[in-house]
Amino acid sequence: MRKIPFLMLLLMGFVNAQKLTSDELSIINQGDIKTALPIYQTTDADQHKTLLTLSKEIDPVDSHTATLVTRMKESLLSTDGGVGIAAPQVGINRKVIWVERFDKEGNPLEYFINPVIVWRSELQNLGPEGDLSIPEFRDQFYRSKVIQLEYVDLKGQKYSEIVEGFTAVIFQHEIDHLFGILISDKKEKEKNDSYKKVDAYKKSDSTTR
C-alpha cells in the first residue's frame, strides 16, 4: 500500500512531463546522433550553471529521449574510466542517467529514466569519488550502503530494485546531479558541519538510569 502514492505520482509525472525545448532538441540532435555529446565542465561559467540546475522528468517514449540516451552512452564511453553520467553533464537538465553495474556479471552499462531513490540505508560507507565535470577533483564521501531505486525504461515500463555497494554509490552520485548537487559543493558543505566528540566511556554525573 505504501507504494501506491509513489506510483500515482510517477504516472502524473509522465503525463505532465514537459516536452523537450527547442534548445534541448538542438543539443541532442546536433551533429551525428551516434557520436558523443561534449561533457560540461565547472570551469565554464555557463556550463557550470547548467550543472547546478534542477532537472525535470522526461517523456520516456519520446524518440528524442532515445537519441539522448544513446548519445549519453557514447559520452560516457569516450571518457577515461568513467563509471556513470547524468544528462545535465551533457547540457540537458532532464532525469536520465547511465551507470556501470559492478553488481552484475560483466559490469554492463545501463540507462535509467526518471530514477528515484525511494529508500536509503542508515548504514553508510566512506569511499573516494571523482566527477567527469570537475577537473582534477577527488575526495572521500559518505554514501548509503544500500538503496531502493525506482525508474522506467524507453518503453515506459516501471522497475524497482535494491542496489548495494559501489554500484549504489554511483547511483547516488548520478542522481545528485539531477538535483544540481556537485561533489565539490557537497564537500564544502560538509566542512561547515560540526560534530561533537562523545566519550562513550565517560561517567555520567547523573545517578539515575
Automatic annotation (TrEMBL):
Entry annotation: catalytic residues: E174
Keyword Acyltransferase carried by entry: no
Name the UniProt record assigns to this protein: Peptide deformylase-like
Coiled-coil regions, chain positions: none
Family named by the database record: Belongs to the polypeptide deformylase family.
Endpoints of the signal sequence: 1-17
Residue segments, region Disordered: 188-209
Organism lineage string: Bacteria, Pseudomonadati, Bacteroidota, Flavobacteriia, Flavobacteriales
NCBIfam families cross-referenced by the UniProt entry: pept_deformyl
GO MF term (any one): metal ion binding
Species the sequence originates in: Chryseobacterium kwangjuense
Claim: Signal is one of the keywords in the record: yes
